[in-house]
């Protein structure tokens, strides 16, 4: 058992109340160690988005415990005062679409988040460029988002997810629009970044192309998580 990374114990989420109540999460147990990338899979309506929203402190669970690093962030109620800072500094998000701001160059797109956290512009841009080096898009640092290919835009979006050095990254269908080769490249990058920055990464996916790459998978069915061993095919 690791103290770091993310640990979820007995998390439940009920939407609404009375006759119309929906128990979207009935029993969620998960742990993801620093440096690990796990898959979260499950049929439509099984609770994947609800779980990501709880983990990302976007909605409040109904019960259970969530531990981030050494801190209990939720225990039948939020245990951190500033949820905005928690989302900004300790959780990185990567979505299916890159959602880059079209009128900022790609470096500013990534530097914006540390700047919101109070980092001076030059330092924030420097940090963005360091990530671009690791992600092999440094040569595009001054380009506008519309001048980048889809795969390059997704790498910039990954840099944005990593830039505040969060201990956890939540990736929601990050490879859905990509072909096989690019999808596997994104997974390889996420694995490299997880190890380099000791990040715990959760990838929600339906993408058959990448499911065999995970060493560990959480399968969620009707709001209950089941841990499974994955094939870990590419990264054995
Ligand atoms: N805001 C809400 N109010 C009431 N019920 C909700 C709400 N959001 C989701 N649900 C219900 O909770 C259950 C889980 O939904 P959720 O969106 O988490 O599933 P999912 O696994 O992400 O599905 P998909 O793969 O289709 O996106 C579903 O029955 C859904 O109808």
Automatic annotation (TrEMBL):
GO molecular function: ATP binding; ATP hydrolysis activity; transmembrane transporter activity
Domain ABC transporter: 6-236
GO cellular component terms attached to this protein's record: plasma membrane
Keywords from the named record: ATP-binding, Nucleotide-binding, Transport
Domain of life per record: Bacteria
The keyword Transport is assigned to this record: yes
SMART domains found in the cross-reference section: AAA
Pfam families registered for this protein in UniProt: ABC_tran
UniProt cross-references to InterPro entries, sorted A to Z: AAA+_ATPase, ABC_transporter-like_ATP-bd, ABC_transporter-like_CS, ABC_transpr_LolD-like, MacB-like_ATP-bd, P-loop_NTPase
Name of the protein this chain belongs to: ABC transporter ATP-binding protein
